[in-house]
Amino acid sequence: MTHIKTLAHLAAILSAAAQVAAHGHITNIVINGVSYRGWDINSDPYNSDPPVVVAWQTPNTANGFISPDAYDTDDIICHLDATNARDHAVIAAGDKISLQWSTWPDSHHGPVIDHLANCGTSCETVDKTTLEFFKIDGVGLVDETTVPGIWGDDLLIADNNTWLVEIPSDIAPGYYVLRHELIALHGAGSEDGAQNYPQCFNLQITGSGTADPSGVLGTELYTSTDPGILVNIYQSLSTYEVPGPTLIPEAASVVQSSSTITASGTPVTGSATATAA
Ligand SMILES: *[C@@H]1O[C@H](CO)[C@@H](O)[C@H](O)[C@H]1NC(C)=O
Ligand SMILES: [Cu+2]
């Protein structure tokens, strides 16, 4: 093996490592101080017996993104080749979840979006292609007085890479997938230049609400020419339309802040009967 080949190989490894470091993923979620471990792309995909967690599993070891030319594929639902989380966390309607990102590059301006989809009897076994997502949170251009502006994900970075989302208080109790997503728009001025970073978590929502919003299939959330997807953020924008279905009327607007962890949570396995206690 020549030195040149070795160096090229090393450069490729370093560049792949830099990409992993540059983008982020969710390390854990926090509900009322209780932290639940996420899916660790740096170790879990390599583990033949990975820990059972509340996050959907993905072999996305490159910390990559889904691009608009894949909006009609299953990968847009819960990221690359995602498979069901094998557990869920319990949360009361009206309570908040803090999602902790490992890191997020400040060049990657764009919206923060949260959807829910009702799983029926179990999010651990539901077929993801049947999930119908409704939007409970969407924060896009927060301050347009500068170019490229201050965006939802800039607030996330300012809060130690965390995002707080409230489960609307009148959502009917049941099993739901939370689909949290950042969309990076730094390259979105040309078609297929946006980058979607969705991640999913299984929740059991408790309470006495009755709202059962209708939603859309993951593969129908976006198109590559939506005004919030094909957009040049390096020009003065007076407004920005967060892509996807309209926010449900029950959605709560949340003042962002990071959450203190007071305990580590054990995810719950199984469906109605197993988790009734
Ligand atoms: C910020 O997040 C990291 C985890 O990425 C955590 O260890 C640290 O305690 C957090 N800092 C604050 C001030 O909350
Ligand atoms: Cu990037």
How are the elements arranged and paired?
Layout: H1 3-22, E1 26-31, E2 34-37, H2 75-78, E3 89-92, E4 96-101, E5 112-120, E6 132-139, E7 141-143, E8 150-151, H3 152-158, E9 162-166, E10 174-184, E11 195-206, E12 216-217, E13 263-264, H4 272-275
Parallel strand pairs: 2-13, 3-11
Antiparallel strand pairs: 1-2, 1-4, 4-9, 5-6, 5-10, 6-12, 7-8, 10-11
This protein binds 2-acetamido-2-deoxy-beta-D-glucopyranose and copper (II) ion.
The site of copper (II) ion has 4 residues, from loops.
List keywords for this structure.
4 helices, single chain, 27% strand, Coagulation Factor XIII, Chain A, domain 1, 277 residues, alpha+beta
Task: Describe the protein in words.
The protein is of the alpha+beta class and 277 residues long. The chain has a single domain (25-276), classed as Coagulation Factor XIII, Chain A, domain 1 (Distorted Sandwich). It has 4 helices and 13 strands. It has a 6-stranded mixed β-sheet. A 5-stranded mixed β-sheet has the order 9-4-1-2-13. A two-stranded antiparallel ribbon has the order 7-8. A hairpin with a 6-residue loop joins strand 7 (141-143) and strand 8. The longest helix is centred in the N-terminal third of the chain and has 20 residues, at 3-22. The chain is globular and about 50 Å long. The chain starts with a helix and ends with a helix. 2-acetamido-2-deoxy-beta-D-glucopyranose binds at residues 100, 160, 258. Its cofactor is Cu(2+). InterPro entries: AA9, AA9_LPMO. This is AA9 family lytic polysaccharide monooxygenase. Keywords: Carbohydrate metabolism, Cellulose degradation, Copper, Disulfide bond, Hydrolase, Metal-binding, Monooxygenase, Oxidoreductase, Polysaccharide degradation, Secreted, Signal. It catalyses: [(1->4)-beta-D-glucosyl]n+m + reduced acceptor + O2 = 4-dehydro-beta-D-glucosyl-[(1->4)-beta-D-glucosyl]n-1 + [(1->4)-beta-D-glucosyl]m + acceptor + H2O.
